[in-house]
Amino acid sequence: MALTETKVIDNITVTENGIVLYREATRILKDGDQIAQTYHRTSLTPAQDLTGQPANVVAICNAAWTPTVIAAYQAQVAAQQIA
Q1: Contact by Cβ (8 Å): 6, 24
Q2: What confidence category does residue 58 fall into, taking pLDDT thresholds of 50, 70 and 90?
Q3: Under DSSP, is residue 1 helix (H, G, I), strand (E, B) or coil?
Q4: Closest C-alpha among 12, 31, 32 to residue 22
Q5: What sections of 1-83 are H helices per DSSP?
Q6: Model pTM?
């Protein structure tokens, strides 16, 4: 009986305002059959530091976070702070 643990990014979503949401699944396998699974969710805002993030998530962020998206997000945050 061999137990193994694997982690995989199984879901990446970009919202309309540029926030990137991703889910990491931790799977426990017994002799190759999955017996348990847990999730950890993370959100990243446009222009956030990506140090330490998974490579596939960084690639999505770099594609989604155009200068226009970053500027619009920053304007939205500034408007919310004034209100």
Answers
A1: no
A2: very high
A3: coil
A4: 12
A5: 55-64, 67-82
A6: 0.88
